[in-house]
Amino acid sequence: ISSLAESPLQAGLLYAGTDDGIFQMSENDGESWTKKELSTISGMPATAFVNNLYADLHDVNTVYMAADNHKYGDFKPYLFKSTDKGKTWKSIASNIPARHLVWRVVQDHVDPNLMFAATEFGIFFTNDSGEKWTKLKGGLPTISFRDITIQKRENDLVAASFGRGFYILDDISPLRSIDDKTLA
Q: Tens digit of pLDDT for each residue in 106-132?
């Protein structure tokens, strides 16, 4: 098991992903599991490694999966969303550039549409649930970010890089209402 997530909304709802292309879901604290091979998901390679599973903070039926296939020379970003507890999946990688494999995804605790993706070459955010991603700049190095989280009390995004320490985006609140005009 390479990733394990627990729903914050439903007791006993667990998600597990493996390094050999398997996703599993349990609704009874792991007593029984429903298995899904990643090869059955359109656009997902059978050999994908599940880097991260993330249970939605606002909708009990939604779960996110970040996967990679770099061991096979495939650096495509694989970022998927399921709105039925993992039965069906849709890619939300949209405009994340090629070769930006995704390590982690995290969702804002206030705005369900605001999400952040830690990739091989930086951090991206979306405020429309993955329809369009924007790269965070402002001094962030173009380096692998392997983990991210949101410190809820201060609304800070905390990101750990691979080899350069960690970075804090102080107060993500303005990103909840930012639009394309402001970004430009």
A: 999 999 999 999 999 999 999 999 999
DSSP string, the chain: --EEEE-SSSTT-EEEE-TTSEEEEESSTTSS-EEEEGGGSTT--TT-EEEEEEE-SS-TT-EEEEEEEGGGTEEEEEEEEESSTTSS-EE--TTPPTT--EEEEEE-SS-TT-EEEEETTEEEEESSTTSS-EE--TT--SS-EEEEEEETTTTEEEEEESSS-EEEES--GGGGS--HHHH-
pTM: 0.96
Six-digit token string for 34: 């429903």
Q: Which of the four pLDDT bands, split at 50, 70 and 90, describes residue 164?
A: confident
